[in-house]
Specification:
With 183 residues, this protein is mostly helical. The chain is built from ten helices and no strands. The protein is elongated and about 65 Å long.
């Protein structure tokens, strides 16, 4: 995720990269593959899937900086080209293992829709004094560190992170008491 942010990836491509990464390791054995190579290949593939193509060179350079913060940038030598080739070959392997199913429905659009609805539902003072939207978005991004994105539907994830954000700040949704089911 950090490398994706440093590469300037948007939220959806980062989420896709994380989902590809987790789904790949659900289908394979963790010890059989280098998780760092899988992570770089996931970013490369996610960039293509989400139409934010990132050159393999940039992924290699950012990843190298991440693993060797005080090290020199990689030279365009045989080691660099071997790593580049590994990323491309790993991308092909991942596509085969995932049976080319690398397009996912993410909860981000649902969360945005729910936030707009909730903003119109709550009074303006309650909305402005609590960072519910920022917290819900951060919780959603953090959920991609694990495999939650594979276990639950996108709409449910959006509702859960919004509910948690509301609970953190003690914001009550109006009319919840009168409703048949709690919000």
């Amino acid at each position: 995720m950090e490398a994706g942010v440093n590469l300037g990836m948007r939220s959806i491509p980062i989420a896709t990269a994380c989902t590809i990464y987790h789904k790949f390791f659900c289908e394979t054995i963790l010890d059989a593959y280098d998780p760092y190579l899988i992570a770089m290949s996931s970013m490369y593939l996610a960039g293509k899937v989400e139409e934010q193509h990132l050159p393999a060179r940039d992924i290699i350079n950012v990843s190298n900086r991440y693993f060797n913060p005080s090290g020199e940038p990689l030279e365009l030598d045989s080691r660099f080209w071997e790593l580049w080739d590994s990323i491309v070959q790993c991308e092909l392997l991942m596509l085969r293992v995932l049976r080319f199913q690398v397009s996912f429905q993410h909860p981000h659009k649902y969360l945005l829709h729910y936030l707009v609805s909730l903003k119109n539902w709550l009074n303006r003072h309650s909305w402005q004094r609590t960072p519910v939207a920022v917290t819900a978005w951060a919780l959603l991004q953090d959920s991609y560190h694990g495999g939650l994105c594979l276990r639950f539907q996108a709409q449910h994830m959006a509702v859960v992170v919004l509910y948690l954000a509301l609970q953190v700040y003690g914001v009550e949704v109006p009319s919840e008491v009168e409703a048949e089911k709690p919000w």
